[in-house]
Amino acid sequence: MSSRYGFGYDELHDDYKLVVIFNIFDDYRDDYASFKTKIKVYSLKTDSWRSVKDFQGSSLIDCSAKFVKGKLYWTKSATARAYNSEYGCTIIHFYEYDDGNRCNIISFDLAYETWGEVEQPNYGKGKFDLMLGILGGDLVVLCNYEGSHSDVWLMKDYGVKPSWTKMFAINCPDDPGKYDYYPRCSLSFSPLFCQLDKGEILLLYRSVFMIYNPKDDSIRVIRQPEITKPKSCFQAEIFIESLVNPLSTADQGLVNQED
């Protein structure tokens, strides 16, 4: 079994919710296995789990969702297949580039617990993959041309295709082997966006933290990993401090139930 997840705030019901998508493997046949999807939503306010309707299509690519304006966002592959090995099952995603069935962007509305599909920008031609991020409170898409550059698209008006704006293109480092701490990591940026005071943007390239300055199109390394031979690719998430204790929402919900 594998899983995907997302966490966010439901403003309509004043509730924090955790969404978990389980891929359950079955029907093992040699090197392959089939899988089915089950989706559970946990409400912090009621301290309870419930099942919700599955999305249509294949499997989600991103492990964790991006939360923007009441919705969770993932990328979803056109097709996927589960492979069985001595290390267990894993899902391999397949999607076309160019004009084929590229991967989609789907959303989950935390208030109404419904799925939707997001209209994407016109990326143009070429072979690339997509990653989601957040910049200044808005959803962004990194269109990664591996080993070359990444186009950054930002969405302002949600659900409206013309609202996508191409912000800038970030060139990959000239010597990617310098950051080759784990060969299986993609030669592209991961969308760890955090707009700093000077308009600079925090990124993760393979396993190295970098800062991109769109004013002069420069990139500088700010931190390299302390371990030289990691067993897997690095992942990171932005942490935002808050004076609001989410547990107070749960306590209030329990009080209301008792009343």
What's a concise summary of this model?
Residues 3-175 form the F-box associated beta-propeller type domain. The chain is mainly β. The protein contains one helix and 18 strands.
Structure description:
The chain is mainly beta and 259 residues long. It is 5% helix and 47% strand. It contains one helix and 18 strands. Strands 1, 2, 3, 4, 7 and 8 form a six-stranded antiparallel sheet that branches. A four-stranded antiparallel sheet has the order 5-6-9-10, with no helix packed on it. A four-stranded antiparallel sheet has the order 11-12-13-14, with no helix packed on it. The protein is globular. The chain starts with a strand and ends with a helix. About 9% of the residues have low confidence. This is F-box protein CPR1-like.
SSE diagram, text form:
Layout: E1 2-10, E2 15-29, E3 32-43, E4 48-51, E5 66-68, E6 71-76, E7 79-85, E8 88-94, E9 104-109, E10 114-118, E11 129-135, E12 138-145, E13 149-155, E14 164-171, E15 189-190, E16 201-205, E17 208-213, E18 218-223, H1 246-258
Antiparallel strand pairs: 1-2, 2-3, 3-4, 3-7, 5-6, 6-9, 7-8, 9-10, 11-12, 12-13, 13-14, 15-16, 16-17, 17-18
